[in-house]
Amino acid sequence: HLGCWRGSGWRSEPVASCGSVVVFFLHRSISQGAGDLVTCPLFLLVKSPYCRMKSWIITGGVATGKSSFGQTLVELTGHEIYVFSCDDEAKRLWGVPEVISEIGSVLGDRVKNQQGTLDRDLIRQVVFSEPVARKALEGVLHPRILGALEIKRAEAEGRKAKVFLAEVPLYYEIRGAIMADSVIVVAASRTVQVNRLMVRRNL
Cα 13 vs. chain centroid, distance in angstroms? Predict the structure, then answer.
């Protein structure tokens, strides 16, 4: 507590900050006799309880290493980072009956197999070849994903996390719909991306 320093004749001035750490310059004048005063300086690092949580976005193309980069940040900082993945949330939504029903309604029977259930391969073919179909699918998934992101951000703030880290592959495509203090773009060469995708999908 800085009060104990002030009570000892020290004066404090904040001179810099980095994240939740504030650097204070403490100094006091010491008499050396004959009226001579010498300033005695001291620098002190103080973790401020008033710094708000930072929000960082990780984005980039497919198979560029976004998840690995985010995991590295978590390993370096431990519990101070709270992570959310849009891809993981999208995978979860594919298991929600209400979402599956709505996707079937907007894309129609052409994406259903002979058993009448949605076929992920057919959906993939349609949305990659038809921009209108892709927009329709995004209209079902994106609002739910962004809503889940904001819920997790509020949860992280409630848990006093230092950083909320969200992996958002389409951050620039959604035109900044998510507020962030920093945006981290992860990139890789086309060769690396293709090789990773081939390994990932057993091609």
Answer: 33
Q: What are phi and psi of 24, to 5 degrees?
A: -105, 140
Tokens of 125: 């073919």
Three-class SS of residue 164? Answer: strand
Whole-angstrom CA distances from 13 to 4, 17, 41, 166 are 15, 12, 11, 35
The answer to whether the CB of 118 falls within 8 A of the CB of 108 is: no
User: Which among 101, 93, 88 has a CA at the least distance from the CA of 144?
Assistant: 93
CB 182 within 8 A of CB 81: no
pLDDT confidence band for 122 (50 / 70 / 90): very high
Q: Are 196 and 63 in contact (CB under 8 A)?
A: yes
pLDDT in tens, 151-182: 999 999 999 898 999 999 999 888 768 989 88
CA angle 196, 202, 203 (to 5 degrees): 85
- Burial code (b: 16+ CB inside 10 Å, e: under 16) for 40-54 equals eeeeeeeeeeeeebb
